[in-house]
Amino acid sequence: MRVVWMKEFGGPEVLVPGEAPDPVPGHGQVVVEVAFVNTTFVETQMRSGGPGPFRPELPIVPGNGVGGVISAVGAGVDPDLAGQRVVTSTGGSGGYAQRVAVAASAVFPVPDGLALDAAVALLADGRTATALVHATSVRPGDRVLVEAAAGGVGGLLVQLTKAAGAVVVGAAGGPAKVSQVLGADVVVDYLAPDWTSSAGEVDVVFDGVGGEIGTAAFGLLRRGGRMASYGLAGGSWSEVSEEDAAARGVTLVRSLGGPEDMRTFTKSALTEAAEGRLVPLIGQRFPLAQASDAHTAMESRTTVGKTLLVP
Prior knowledge:
By secondary structure, the protein is an alpha/beta fold. It has nine helices and 15 strands. It has helices at residues 41-48, 116-135, 152-163, 175-178, 195-199, 211-218, 242-247, 259-274, 291-299, and strands at residues 2-6, 15-19, 29-38, 65-73, 85-89, 99-103, 107-109, 143-146, 167-172, 186-189, 202-207, 221-229, 251-253, 282-287, 306-310. Strand 11 (202-207), helix 6 and strand 12 form a beta-alpha-beta unit. Helix 2 packs across helix 3 (152-163) and helix 2 crosses helix 8 (259-274). The longest helix is centred in the middle third of the chain and has 20 residues, at 116-135.
Protein backbone atom coordinates (compact mmCIF):
# COMPACT_ATOMS: atom_id res chain seq x y z
CA MET A 1 0.00 0.00 0.00
CA ARG A 2 0.97 3.64 -0.41
CA VAL A 3 2.29 5.45 2.66
CA VAL A 4 4.41 8.45 3.58
CA TRP A 5 7.60 7.67 5.50
CA MET A 6 9.54 9.88 7.88
CA LYS A 7 13.02 8.49 8.45
CA GLU A 8 14.64 11.57 9.97
CA PHE A 9 13.65 14.81 11.67
CA GLY A 10 13.77 17.97 9.61
CA GLY A 11 11.85 20.09 7.13
CA PRO A 12 8.83 18.98 5.12
CA GLU A 13 11.14 17.25 2.62
CA VAL A 14 11.70 14.41 5.11
CA LEU A 15 8.15 13.22 4.35
CA VAL A 16 8.78 10.79 1.50
CA PRO A 17 6.16 8.72 -0.37
CA GLY A 18 6.79 4.99 -0.25
CA GLU A 19 5.30 1.56 0.23
CA ALA A 20 4.49 -0.63 3.22
CA PRO A 21 2.86 -4.04 3.64
CA ASP A 22 -0.92 -4.08 3.72
CA PRO A 23 -2.17 -4.35 7.32
CA VAL A 24 -3.89 -7.52 8.47
CA PRO A 25 -6.50 -7.21 11.23
CA GLY A 26 -5.51 -8.95 14.44
CA HIS A 27 -7.86 -10.10 17.17
CA GLY A 28 -10.26 -7.27 17.98
CA GLN A 29 -9.07 -5.14 15.07
CA VAL A 30 -10.50 -3.79 11.83
CA VAL A 31 -8.82 -2.54 8.66
CA VAL A 32 -9.98 0.82 7.34
CA GLU A 33 -9.62 1.80 3.68
CA VAL A 34 -8.57 5.40 4.18
CA ALA A 35 -10.42 8.07 2.21
CA PHE A 36 -9.13 11.14 4.11
CA VAL A 37 -6.25 11.75 6.52
CA ASN A 38 -6.41 14.42 9.20
CA THR A 39 -3.37 16.66 9.66
CA THR A 40 -2.50 18.88 12.61
CA PHE A 41 0.04 21.60 13.29
CA VAL A 42 1.44 19.42 16.08
CA GLU A 43 2.50 16.93 13.41
CA THR A 44 4.68 19.59 11.76
CA GLN A 45 6.35 20.22 15.10
CA MET A 46 6.86 16.50 15.69
CA ARG A 47 8.36 16.14 12.19
CA SER A 48 10.82 18.97 12.80
CA GLY A 49 11.97 17.47 16.08
CA GLY A 50 10.68 20.53 17.94
CA PRO A 51 8.48 20.76 21.03
CA GLY A 52 5.41 18.59 21.06
CA PRO A 53 3.53 15.90 22.95
CA PHE A 54 5.88 13.09 21.92
CA ARG A 55 9.10 12.35 20.04
CA PRO A 56 8.70 9.13 18.04
CA GLU A 57 11.19 6.42 17.25
CA LEU A 58 12.21 6.54 13.59
CA PRO A 59 11.47 5.44 10.92
CA ILE A 60 7.76 6.12 11.20
CA VAL A 61 4.65 6.60 9.12
CA PRO A 62 3.19 9.76 10.71
CA GLY A 63 -0.47 10.56 11.19
CA ASN A 64 -3.00 10.00 13.94
CA GLY A 65 -6.44 10.45 12.42
CA VAL A 66 -8.19 8.94 9.42
CA GLY A 67 -11.60 8.24 8.00
CA GLY A 68 -12.84 5.66 5.55
CA VAL A 69 -14.71 2.39 5.17
CA ILE A 70 -14.00 -0.78 7.13
CA SER A 71 -12.82 -3.39 4.63
CA ALA A 72 -11.87 -6.30 6.91
CA VAL A 73 -12.45 -7.42 10.47
CA GLY A 74 -10.37 -9.64 12.72
CA ALA A 75 -11.36 -12.41 15.09
CA GLY A 76 -13.69 -11.35 17.88
CA VAL A 77 -15.14 -8.44 15.88
CA ASP A 78 -18.75 -8.14 14.71
CA PRO A 79 -18.61 -8.95 10.97
CA ASP A 80 -21.43 -6.45 10.39
CA LEU A 81 -18.87 -3.67 10.92
CA ALA A 82 -17.50 -4.38 7.44
CA GLY A 83 -18.64 -1.67 5.05
CA GLN A 84 -19.32 0.94 7.74
CA ARG A 85 -18.05 4.50 7.37
CA VAL A 86 -15.88 5.37 10.36
CA VAL A 87 -13.32 7.81 11.70
CA THR A 88 -10.59 6.77 14.08
CA SER A 89 -7.32 7.67 15.72
CA THR A 90 -4.41 5.38 14.98
CA GLY A 91 -2.62 5.65 18.31
CA GLY A 92 -0.07 8.29 17.33
CA SER A 93 1.33 6.99 14.03
CA GLY A 94 0.49 5.14 10.84
CA GLY A 95 -2.18 7.51 9.54
CA TYR A 96 -0.44 8.79 6.39
CA ALA A 97 -1.38 5.58 4.61
CA GLN A 98 -3.81 3.96 2.22
CA ARG A 99 -5.00 1.51 4.89
CA VAL A 100 -4.76 1.22 8.67
CA ALA A 101 -5.46 -1.49 11.21
CA VAL A 102 -6.95 -0.25 14.48
CA ALA A 103 -8.86 -1.63 17.45
CA ALA A 104 -12.53 -2.00 16.65
CA SER A 105 -13.25 -0.21 19.93
CA ALA A 106 -11.39 2.88 18.65
CA VAL A 107 -13.62 3.62 15.66
CA PHE A 108 -16.50 6.09 15.59
CA PRO A 109 -19.36 5.46 13.15
CA VAL A 110 -19.99 8.46 10.91
CA PRO A 111 -23.63 9.52 11.34
CA ASP A 112 -25.94 9.47 8.34
CA GLY A 113 -26.04 12.85 6.66
CA LEU A 114 -22.46 13.75 7.57
CA ALA A 115 -19.87 13.69 4.80
CA LEU A 116 -16.80 11.58 5.49
CA ASP A 117 -14.35 14.43 4.88
CA ALA A 118 -16.24 16.62 7.37
CA ALA A 119 -16.15 13.81 9.93
CA VAL A 120 -12.37 13.49 9.54
CA ALA A 121 -11.99 17.26 9.89
CA LEU A 122 -13.89 17.01 13.19
CA LEU A 123 -12.10 13.98 14.61
CA ALA A 124 -9.35 15.87 16.46
CA ASP A 125 -10.55 19.47 16.19
CA GLY A 126 -14.17 18.77 17.07
CA ARG A 127 -13.42 16.86 20.25
CA THR A 128 -10.81 19.44 21.26
CA ALA A 129 -13.13 22.40 20.72
CA THR A 130 -16.02 20.68 22.50
CA ALA A 131 -13.77 19.74 25.42
CA LEU A 132 -12.40 23.29 25.69
CA VAL A 133 -15.85 24.86 25.85
CA HIS A 134 -16.91 22.32 28.48
CA ALA A 135 -13.73 22.73 30.57
CA THR A 136 -13.99 26.54 30.66
CA SER A 137 -17.72 26.49 31.47
CA VAL A 138 -18.62 29.09 28.84
CA ARG A 139 -21.86 30.79 29.90
CA PRO A 140 -24.38 33.09 28.21
CA GLY A 141 -23.06 36.65 28.27
CA ASP A 142 -19.38 35.66 28.61
CA ARG A 143 -17.01 37.60 26.39
CA VAL A 144 -14.69 35.05 24.80
CA LEU A 145 -11.42 35.50 22.90
CA VAL A 146 -10.63 32.80 20.35
CA GLU A 147 -7.07 32.93 19.05
CA ALA A 148 -6.28 31.39 15.64
CA ALA A 149 -9.99 31.78 14.88
CA ALA A 150 -9.44 30.99 11.18
CA GLY A 151 -7.93 27.60 12.05
CA GLY A 152 -9.56 24.21 12.44
CA VAL A 153 -10.10 24.29 16.22
CA GLY A 154 -10.56 28.07 16.31
CA GLY A 155 -13.36 28.10 13.76
CA LEU A 156 -15.24 25.43 15.71
CA LEU A 157 -14.69 27.30 18.98
CA VAL A 158 -16.33 30.37 17.46
CA GLN A 159 -19.39 28.29 16.55
CA LEU A 160 -19.64 26.47 19.87
CA THR A 161 -19.18 29.54 22.05
CA LYS A 162 -21.73 31.51 20.01
CA ALA A 163 -24.16 28.64 20.47
CA ALA A 164 -23.50 28.81 24.23
CA GLY A 165 -24.59 32.46 24.23
CA ALA A 166 -21.17 34.12 24.40
CA VAL A 167 -19.96 37.28 22.71
CA VAL A 168 -17.02 36.14 20.60
CA VAL A 169 -13.84 38.02 19.70
CA GLY A 170 -12.06 36.14 16.92
CA ALA A 171 -8.33 36.82 16.57
CA ALA A 172 -6.23 35.81 13.57
CA GLY A 173 -2.83 36.74 12.15
CA GLY A 174 -2.82 38.98 9.07
CA PRO A 175 -5.51 40.36 6.75
CA ALA A 176 -5.93 37.11 4.79
CA LYS A 177 -6.61 35.10 7.94
CA VAL A 178 -8.81 37.83 9.43
CA SER A 179 -11.02 37.70 6.34
CA GLN A 180 -11.60 33.96 6.98
CA VAL A 181 -12.89 34.36 10.54
CA LEU A 182 -16.60 33.59 10.28
CA GLY A 183 -19.33 34.16 12.84
CA ALA A 184 -17.43 36.18 15.47
CA ASP A 185 -18.95 39.38 16.86
CA VAL A 186 -15.59 41.17 16.74
CA VAL A 187 -12.55 40.24 14.61
CA VAL A 188 -9.03 41.48 15.35
CA ASP A 189 -5.62 41.00 13.74
CA TYR A 190 -3.21 39.86 16.45
CA LEU A 191 -0.26 40.93 14.32
CA ALA A 192 -1.37 44.56 14.67
CA PRO A 193 0.50 46.42 17.45
CA ASP A 194 -2.70 47.59 19.17
CA TRP A 195 -4.68 44.39 18.81
CA THR A 196 -5.38 43.98 22.52
CA SER A 197 -7.06 47.41 22.63
CA SER A 198 -9.31 46.35 19.78
CA ALA A 199 -10.12 43.05 21.49
CA GLY A 200 -10.97 44.51 24.91
CA GLU A 201 -11.51 42.72 28.20
CA VAL A 202 -12.75 39.14 28.13
CA ASP A 203 -13.93 36.40 30.47
CA VAL A 204 -12.45 33.43 28.62
CA VAL A 205 -9.32 33.01 26.47
CA PHE A 206 -8.79 30.04 24.17
CA ASP A 207 -5.05 30.17 23.52
CA GLY A 208 -4.10 28.23 20.43
CA VAL A 209 -1.09 30.37 19.52
CA GLY A 210 1.01 30.65 22.66
CA GLY A 211 4.12 32.81 22.90
CA GLU A 212 3.71 36.57 23.08
CA ILE A 213 0.18 36.43 21.65
CA GLY A 214 -1.08 34.10 24.36
CA THR A 215 0.67 36.05 27.08
CA ALA A 216 -0.89 39.30 25.82
CA ALA A 217 -4.30 37.61 25.72
CA PHE A 218 -3.91 36.60 29.37
CA GLY A 219 -3.63 40.30 30.19
CA LEU A 220 -7.14 40.87 28.82
CA LEU A 221 -8.83 38.56 31.31
CA ARG A 222 -11.12 39.97 33.98
CA ARG A 223 -11.12 38.61 37.53
CA GLY A 224 -12.87 35.28 37.55
CA GLY A 225 -11.74 34.64 34.00
CA ARG A 226 -10.61 31.32 32.55
CA MET A 227 -7.77 30.57 30.15
CA ALA A 228 -7.20 27.33 28.28
CA SER A 229 -3.97 26.89 26.32
CA TYR A 230 -4.20 24.09 23.77
CA GLY A 231 -1.62 24.97 21.10
CA LEU A 232 1.69 26.65 20.46
CA ALA A 233 1.47 27.69 16.82
CA GLY A 234 3.68 30.64 17.78
CA GLY A 235 6.50 28.22 18.68
CA SER A 236 6.25 28.22 22.49
CA TRP A 237 3.69 28.06 25.27
CA SER A 238 2.39 31.30 26.75
CA GLU A 239 4.43 32.59 29.66
CA VAL A 240 1.67 32.48 32.23
CA SER A 241 2.27 30.93 35.65
CA GLU A 242 -0.18 29.68 38.25
CA GLU A 243 1.09 32.45 40.54
CA ASP A 244 0.33 35.14 37.93
CA ALA A 245 -3.11 33.69 37.39
CA ALA A 246 -3.91 33.45 41.11
CA ALA A 247 -2.84 37.05 41.64
CA ARG A 248 -5.37 38.16 39.04
CA GLY A 249 -8.14 35.76 40.03
CA VAL A 250 -7.85 33.77 36.80
CA THR A 251 -8.26 30.00 36.44
CA LEU A 252 -5.82 28.21 34.12
CA VAL A 253 -7.54 25.17 32.62
CA ARG A 254 -4.96 22.39 32.42
CA SER A 255 -7.05 19.27 31.81
CA LEU A 256 -9.73 18.52 29.23
CA GLY A 257 -10.69 15.14 30.65
CA GLY A 258 -9.75 11.48 30.36
CA PRO A 259 -10.09 9.03 27.46
CA GLU A 260 -13.79 8.35 28.06
CA ASP A 261 -14.50 12.07 28.24
CA MET A 262 -12.75 12.55 24.90
CA ARG A 263 -14.81 9.78 23.33
CA THR A 264 -17.94 11.54 24.56
CA PHE A 265 -16.75 14.87 23.14
CA THR A 266 -15.94 13.21 19.79
CA LYS A 267 -19.42 11.69 19.55
CA SER A 268 -20.95 15.04 20.50
CA ALA A 269 -19.05 16.87 17.77
CA LEU A 270 -20.05 14.32 15.13
CA THR A 271 -23.69 14.47 16.21
CA GLU A 272 -23.74 18.27 16.20
CA ALA A 273 -22.24 18.28 12.71
CA ALA A 274 -24.70 15.69 11.40
CA GLU A 275 -27.54 17.90 12.64
CA GLY A 276 -26.04 20.97 10.97
CA ARG A 277 -25.09 22.85 14.13
CA LEU A 278 -21.32 22.48 13.73
CA VAL A 279 -19.62 22.99 10.37
CA PRO A 280 -15.89 22.39 9.92
CA LEU A 281 -14.02 24.48 7.37
CA ILE A 282 -11.87 22.34 5.09
CA GLY A 283 -9.58 24.89 3.55
CA GLN A 284 -7.27 22.69 1.49
CA ARG A 285 -6.64 19.10 0.40
CA PHE A 286 -3.43 17.49 -0.81
CA PRO A 287 -2.77 14.07 -2.34
CA LEU A 288 -1.18 11.73 0.18
CA ALA A 289 2.07 11.72 -1.80
CA GLN A 290 2.24 15.51 -1.35
CA ALA A 291 2.17 15.41 2.45
CA SER A 292 5.36 17.49 2.41
CA ASP A 293 3.51 20.25 0.53
CA ALA A 294 0.72 20.12 3.12
CA HIS A 295 3.24 20.59 5.92
CA THR A 296 4.90 23.44 4.04
CA ALA A 297 1.55 25.19 3.67
CA MET A 298 0.65 24.77 7.33
CA GLU A 299 4.01 26.06 8.50
CA SER A 300 3.83 29.06 6.17
CA ARG A 301 0.54 30.07 7.81
CA THR A 302 -1.19 30.18 4.41
CA THR A 303 -3.82 27.59 5.31
CA VAL A 304 -7.29 28.20 6.68
CA GLY A 305 -9.42 25.69 8.53
CA LYS A 306 -8.50 22.04 8.22
CA THR A 307 -5.93 20.51 5.89
CA LEU A 308 -6.67 16.97 4.69
CA LEU A 309 -4.61 14.40 2.80
CA VAL A 310 -6.31 12.22 0.18
CA PRO A 311 -4.76 8.77 -0.51
